[in-house]
Amino acid sequence: MEALxxxxxxxxxxxxxxxxxxxxxTGCLLGTLVGVLPGLGPTATVAMLMPVTFSLEPxxxxxxxxxxxxGSQYGGSTTAILVNLPGESSSVVTCLDGHAMARQGRAGAAxxxxxxxxxxxxxxxxxxxxxxGPAIASIALxxxxxxxxxxxxxxxxxxxxxxxxxxxxxxAMIVLGIFLGLVGTDLTSxxxxxxxxxxxxxxxxxxxxxxxxxxxLSEVMLNLEARAASGDLARLRDRLWPxxxxxxxxxxxxxxxxxxGIALGILPGGGSTIPSFAAYSLEKKLARDPARFxxxxxxxxxxxxxxxxxxxxxxxIPMLALGLxxxxxxxxxxxxxxxxxxxxxxxxxxxxxxxxxxLVASMWxxxxxxxxxxxxxxxxxxxxxxxxxxxxxPAIIVFCCIGVYSLKNAASEIxxxxxxxxxxxxxxxxxxxxxxxxxxxILGPMLEENFRRALSVSGGDFSVFVTRPISATLLAFSAVLxxxxxxxxxxxxxxxxxx
Amino acid sequence: MAGTDQSxxxxxxxxxxxxxxxxxxxxxxxxxxxxxxxxxxxxITLIVPWPAGxxxxxxxxxxxxxxxxxxxxxxxxxxxxGAGGTxxxxxxxxxxxxxxxxxxxxxxxxxxxxxNPNANALSDFExxxxxxxxxxxxxxxxxxxxxxxxxxxxxxRANPGKxxxxxxxPGGSSHVxxxxxxRRLAVKINKxxxxxxAPTVQALLSGELDSVTVSLPDIVQHHKSGAARSIAIAxxxxxxxxxxxxxxxxxxxxxxxxxxxxxxxxRGTPADRIGTLESRLLETLRDKDFIEKARAAGxxxxxxxxxxxxxxxxxxxEAMYPVFLEAGLVRARQK
Lengths: 499, 335
Known about the structure:
The structure holds 2 protein chains of 2 kinds.
Chain A lengths: L1 H14 L2 H19 L5 H8 L8 H26 L8 H12 L3 H34 L4 H18 L4 H16 L1 E2 L6 E2 L13 H20 L17 H22 L7 H14 L12 H16 L1 H7 L5 H12 L7 H5 L1 H32 L4 H20 L3 H18 L4 H24 L6 H4 L1 H18 L1 H11 L1
Antiparallel strand pairs in A: 1-2
Chain B lengths: L1 H36 L6 E5 L6 H17 L3 E5 L6 H8 L7 E6 L1 H8 L9 E16 L8 H10 L5 E4 L5 H13 L4 E4 L3 H9 L5 E5 H10 L3 E5 L24 E9 L4 H16 L1 H9 L9 H21 L9
Parallel strand pairs in B: 1-2, 1-3, 5-6, 5-7
Antiparallel strand pairs in B: 3-9, 4-7, 4-8, 4-9
Helix pairs in contact in B: 2-9, 4-11
């Protein structure tokens, strides 16, 4: 304990120097500004701003990049809540109830809950890193391909729970998403599938343009249709801040979301997306009245926001402690460290304690700064969506195009987004929800890749899925969950709830 | 109305400007030869066909930064990722061949020309300079007990096709490297594909794999900590980041593989401009400070001029083609 305090003291001594505080602030600010642009999620933002940090000393550079990362993560939630535009995969779930709240005139409360849940998750995750970083990281090493298959199957089963409409439609959407995920170069054979010789499809259908089309653009179309005459998006009702009842509902959800986020965030490929989906599903299962979800349930914002922040930050654990970046952003961070001649890995804590503990301390400071920066901004954001819709929607579309274009500097992404927008409009007319489709698109390729790999490694022996304890447990759990969803009696109950 | 007046006068201006340009055309033609000597007289675009933040991007941003001083003009990195580098290289190859658009070409382009009908052939690029190698390293899980290449061969021959090796997808540099290694060592291993080196290394540490063929910076710290054991590096010499790891050649096997990068201009670029670009870039890459800076970021810089680059690349092309053929991945054009 004393050692921990001493370490944290080292960390805060490094982090609160005027230079590093200023860098942290600059990073958060830049990250928020760029991250609010739809389509520019944390990965793109960190990649774009990385060269800015090349001239800084290493600790400062990392502190600033971490700030950019939190800022853009938070910025993505803002657009998700206000205009139903998930700027990145992890804020897809935030759209569901966040935007529903905004439509009810409670955007301020939704934004505040998202910010506070993120701060709480950030604080707990920072503490977890400080207390047991290396120990937690080693959990990731217990997972092999077969276990990932089980995690993903569980995720897909949970996605059925996500939908509040018919189970059949939810399954159809997941399958459609998995099919979309097949497009591109197959990892196992190197073959191109469904690319029709179009270069832009060789790497598969990008998640971000599809998400923005399905959610954002189709929303614009529906809005224009519904309120062709006057149409403001939402009037601010009663108060800007969450009510006491909101906080009471959000608090336990935040705690659960945080724990789930840390657990899933350290796994490779986990990042912040799967935790946010998982947290939402969990809350919906636990809720006494699941019908509230999708209509502005406070837990539906608090849990996934906590989970995605915890998951994103937990990604630092394997990156710093093992040198194994679990997702694209952490791989970028490793790149940034290498530029400064630092090899992330087990030695880093012993050899460069100022860097490690400085970064840990700045994580917490960064989270706090974000909330301090953003709470006063909420009033401004909320005013923004009170603008007449005829001014707002062209701006939304322009920003969507800019954001999507800048992902790869390619116009093809804009085309994909436009097509996804049209498809999304049709799907929503048919009462099919886009969220399970997106989860299928993310998890489908991962499922196939790990499934084929697990079999390759086991020499074609299917028993590997039931002989490995982690895999067997998770698959059994999925089976139980699926049975509950599919049991006729339960289903009848769901349908009744919907009426 | 003011608006129409403005647009009227704007169009008049445009007409006047056009007439002026036509009159000035002969003068411009005459100035052309002067301009050629003044090359470069405007910023140079360096296309990196990989995303911002990755290894290629970092390497090329360092080059661009240092080369800007020697060119007397800014060298601007533009990321055009996608389709294994094909999209960015196509943009370079179809750019005006005036020396102002150049691009980084990496190992993957050798494969793309045979596999992807949309990809450019290597002959569409005019090599300028060779940047350097990122040699592949063979590393094993300590539980295998393997310490040398000879022991690796013995283990692989004892269980043909059973030793599990982590690499990237068929056609990728690490997969090709592993295939070339199989041929050179006359063994059969199970090449398991992963999306990227970080998950490959993770799988080795988790015990899912017996060995991996990745680039050294991705595994060096695990080698140092003892969680993995690097037994041979497929470079011409030992790697400065892990001088204790012997080369394949030192262990009696003439095997070199890995990824490499060179910078090229579109075919049809005038010879004098190619010459200028080659010499300025070569000066940049040979600069001691530059090499030191690149080393700190994990890059081995082994600059070669245009002629040597052409020789090197065609030798690689020659060696890799049979691997693609065997894997059934040759379908765009044949050699």
